[in-house]
Specification:
Blueprint: H1 2-5, H2 9-17, H3 32-38, H4 42-50, H5 65-71
Helix pairs in contact: 3-4, 3-5
């Protein structure tokens, strides 16, 4: 999730190659895909989706990953 928060595709790719669960959740129920959208890292989110991330996983509040995008701050 830190790789997604920091928009680090290289580390995300490495971790996927090591077999990490792409849909693992943190204590709030957010997946890596939620985090990508939360921080507006759309390219990395698309990479995760292309590598099997499940877009239908809800967090503890019932929020889908793409819904985090609507609330994400945008760059000036």
């Amino acid at each position: 999730m830190i790789a997604c928060q920091n928009n680090n595709r290289r580390i995300a790719k490495y971790l996927l190659g090591c077999g990490v669960n792409i849909d693992a959740k943190n204590v709030k129920g957010n997946t890596a895909l939620h985090v990508c959208y939360q921080f507006n890292h759309i390219s990395l989110a698309e990479f995760l989706i292309a590598n099997g991330a499940d877009e239908s996983v809800k967090n503890n509040d019932g929020v889908l990953p793409h819904m985090m995008r609507a609330a994400a701050p945008t760059d000036p």
